[in-house]
Amino acid sequence: MSWPGGSPSSGSGAGSGQRATVGAAAIEVSGLTKEFGRRTAVEDVSFSVARGEVFGFLGPNGAGKTTTVRILGTLIAPTAGSAVVAGIPLIRANEAEIRRRISIMPEAPGLYRRLTVTENLEFFARLYGLPDRQARMKEALDVVGLGDRAQDICGSLSKGLRQRVALARTLLNDPEVMFLDEPTSGLDPVAAHEVHGLINTLRQRGVTVFITTHRLDEAERLCDRVAILNTRLRTIGRPDELRHTLFSRSIAVTTAAPLGDPARVFTGLPAVQGWRADELSAGSTAGYVLTVSDPVRAAPEVTRALVAAGADVLSITEARHSLEDVYLELVEDQEGRSR
Ligand SMILES: Nc1ncnc2c1ncn2[C@@H]1O[C@H](COP(=O)(O)OP(=O)(O)OP(=O)(O)O)[C@@H](O)[C@H]1O
Ligand SMILES: [Mg+2]
Fold first, then answer.
1. Counting atoms of ligand 1 from 1, which one is nearest the CA of 42?
2. Which residue has the higher pLDDT, 337 or 158?
3. Is the pTM of this model over 0.70?
4. How far does the centroid of ligand 2 lie from the alpha carbon of residue 105, in Å?
5. Residues 201 and 292 in one domain
6. How close is the Cα of 193 to the center of ligand 2, in Å?
7. Are residues 154 and 266 in the same domain?
């Protein structure tokens, strides 16, 4: 059984909002390591997740994301290290209490395809001994927008709709912390967008969401902070923070025609540390990329210098690095390692 459950939670229904826990952080992980025989899946990983935070866990295939989720979800024991989940120390004696306060949406939703949506939810609600089953099921289905599909056979639902049923199942026990393992894997953009909406609903309800994903745009849009893992933790921070710490800041300038002497225009400006011509500029226009200390200070300075040199400025913008750039920078040099 890979599904956490347990006896009644302190809430009175899915999303009832009662949050009776102790401790400051929702999740705290210290020196977590998991070995499967001679293979190390997760090595010396430490991080913490604040209550109500949407936290992204990124990393290539085999990086140890699901292993971490399974450890924090009390499904497997770590080889070394310690953790606090939903404010409760992760030790064997506390496992049942932790399971009451969390839920996991595993990589494979694991629904019974011959049962209806309601029968599936009922099965799991009974298995975990939840009270107020009808009310919880109705609220969970409403949250995921499946109120009118309750009597449909699960096998007849599209993949995206089944994903939503799986999400409804994770809501049944009114969790404080939700672990979503690649919740949008295989979904089309519309279905993925709907799941993002659901995650934002959970955020508004104060649920802590720990989400693993390969979709960097998704992490960038949804997550307050992200961690990039490749067996070991490579970095952690807000997406914009990571971009800034990893890459020098730059601004991109486009002019109607190439500058006669760009070095003379750009060299000596206090906010500009370096420049290069951008070979990708189109037609007769010319592009330049300037490395700057502070784009807000540099942009007017550069504009004045260009105008003084008689250039027709078409655009001047801060060049943005995406989270994808950060990710590739961090994991590419690890790609060759054995898993
Ligand atoms: N039960 C197990 N027995 C042996 N090895 C395992 C077991 N579970 C995971 N591993 C190994 O641990 C490593 C990490 O696996 P894990 O499933 O955590 O990766 P992941 O980051 O979730 O990858 P993916 O993006 O493919 O889902 C892999 O090398 C995997 O083969
Ligand atoms: Mg995985």
1. 14
2. 158
3. yes
4. 12
5. no
6. 21
7. no
Judge if 134 and 86 occupy the same domain: yes
| CA pair distance 6, 8, nearest whole angstrom | 7
- Pair 126, 43 in one domain: yes
* Contact of 81 with 45, CB cutoff 8 Å: yes
| Cβ 337 under 6 angstroms from ligand 1 | no
Whether residues 298 and 207 fall in one domain: no
Both 259 and 233 in one domain: the answer is: no
Name the average pLDDT for the chain: 87
**Does the CA dihedral 189-193-199-202 come out positive or negative?**
negative
User: From CA 218, how far away is CA 291, in angstroms rounded?
Assistant: 28
d(CA 209, CA 205): 11
What pLDDT, in 10s, does the model give residues 70-109? Answer: 999 999 999 999 999 999 999 999 999 999 999 999 988 8
Q: How many residues are present in the chain?
A: 339
Q: What are phi and psi of 205, to 5 degrees?
A: -85, 0
**DSSP-assigned states of every residue in 80-101:** EEEEEETTEE--GGGHHHHHHH
